[in-house]
Automatic annotation (TrEMBL), chain A:
Family, per entry: Belongs to the TRAPP small subunits family. BET3 subfamily.
Superkingdom classification of source: Eukaryota
Keyword set, alphabetical order: Endoplasmic reticulum, ER-Golgi transport, Golgi apparatus, Transport
Subcellular location: Endoplasmic reticulum; Golgi apparatus, cis-Golgi network
Annotated organism of origin: Tuber melanosporum (strain Mel28)
GO cellular component annotations of the record: endoplasmic reticulum; Golgi apparatus; TRAPP complex
Keyword Phosphoprotein: no
Primary site of residence: endoplasmic reticulum
Protein name (record): Trafficking protein particle complex subunit BET3
UniProtKB/TrEMBL annotation, chain B:
GO cellular component, one term: endoplasmic reticulum
Name of the protein: Trafficking protein particle complex subunit
Species: Tuber melanosporum (strain Mel28) (Perigord black truffle)
CDD domains hit by this protein: TRAPPC4_synbindin (cd14856)
Quaternary structure annotation from Swiss-Prot or TrEMBL: Part of the multisubunit transport protein particle (TRAPP) complex.
Compartments reported by the entry: Endoplasmic reticulum; Golgi apparatus, cis-Golgi network; Golgi apparatus
Lineage, broadest ranks: Eukaryota, Fungi, Dikarya, Ascomycota, Pezizomycotina
Main subcellular location of this protein, as a coarse class: endoplasmic reticulum
Database matches in PANTHER family: TRAFFICKING PROTEIN PARTICLE COMPLEX SUBUNIT, TRAFFICKING PROTEIN PARTICLE COMPLEX SUBUNIT 4
Length: 191, 135
């Protein structure tokens, strides 16, 4: 599926089949989760990143079914198509944003998602404690969501943020790497 | 619309949901339903390997008989929905899609449902019945 077709599908599904919710409710809910984690782990931001990723992963495992049921997407032919689908259909449908797919490696196994906007991070300023700016990946839940959803469709990926406007970087960039295609002949735990 | 029965299989071939909606199929013991699900899972895996049609690796989709028509829909995540309907029932694919949506909503989005485990979600059943057998 071409990039333009993905964009059309995303737009169409978002317009016709998605129940909308107030964006600030999402922003504030997400914010209070991150802030609560920072309190619970007493400013151990590396642990907060880990927890956010794990929460996202558990969301992803479930969200994929909603994605497939609503969009009627078929299989992607290759990882490039997967990337376009994530950016133009997935992010569009669930967050009404379309990050840009960029920076492919030559083996077509690694790409970046560049977020021009990020509804999770509206109104946010990281704590001024000298560490949050270097350690906390505020939107790390998104990485987990991608890992969870893709695992359910037989792709093991690594996803992490490489830069974040909240930290003072130029852009917000997530790096996604295809680790392997999971052979589904023998599901885990079925010996 | 006469849908006789619905079975849902997890990706390992385990039966996670079974419900009859109308009379017409023989009742099986719960163990036999598990065997049926496991057997179908195996047959499906074989048919997806030996399909004579090129690029149709999807496996068995429809089984027709004088008494019923069975349609299998496998999602990209490997979950299978088996619908048994009357032989002349049209548009089962529409029914399957809708059932998948209900599953995504009332099963997967229920935070207390454990993935891959048997479905015991009352809201899911209620909505299924309302859709398949409206009063």
């Amino acid at each position: 599926m071409s990039a333009t077709k993905a964009a059309r599908v995303g737009e169409d599904v978002w317009k016709t089949r998605i129940d909308k919710v107030n964006a600030e409710l999402v922003t504030l809910t997400y914010g209070s989760i991150v802030a609560q984690l920072c309190r619970d782990f007493e400013g151990d931001y590396l642990e907060v990143n880990k927890q956010l990723e794990k929460m996202g992963y558990n969301i992803g495992l479930r969200l994929i079914e909603d994605f497939l049921a609503k969009t009627n997407m078929g299989k992607c032919a290759n990882f490039r198509e997967t990337a376009e689908t994530i950016a133009k259909v997935g992010f569009k449908v669930f967050l009404n944003i379309t990050p840009t797919v960029a920076n492919w490696t030559t083996d077509n196994k690694q790409f970046s998602l560049i977020f021009e906007e990020n509804p999770l991070a509206d109104f946010v300023e990281l704590p001024d404690d000298g560490r949050a700016q270097n350690e906390l990946w505020y939107s790390n839940m998104l990485c987990g969501v991608l890992r969870g959803t893709l695992e359910m469709v037989q792709m093991q990926v690594d996803a992490h943020f490489a830069s974040d406007i909240l930290r003072g970087n130029e852009v917000t960039e997530m790096r996604v790497t295809l680790v392997r295609i999971i052979d589904d002949e023998l599901p885990p735990g079925e010996d | 619309m006469v849908i006789l029965s619905l079975l849902i299989l997890n990706k390992a071939g385990g039966l996670i949901f079974q419900r009859d909606f109308n009379e017409g199929l023989k009742k099986l013991s719960s163990n036999d339903y598990l065997v049926l699900a496991g057997t179908f899972h195996g047959v499906h895996a074989i048919t997806s390997r030996i399909s004579p049609v090129r690029n149709s690796g999807g496996g068995l989709e429809v089984l027709e008989s004088d008494r019923f028509r069975m349609q299998c829909f496998q999602t990209l995540t490997g979950t299978k929905f088996l619908i048994f309907a009357e032989p002349n029932q049209p548009n089962i694919d529409v029914v399957v899609k809708r059932v998948y949506e209900l599953y995504a909503d009332y099963v997967m989005k229920n935070p207390f449902y454990q993935i891959e485990m048997p479905i015991r979600c009352e809201a899911f059943e209620r909505n299924l019945v309302a859709y398949i057998k409206p009063k």
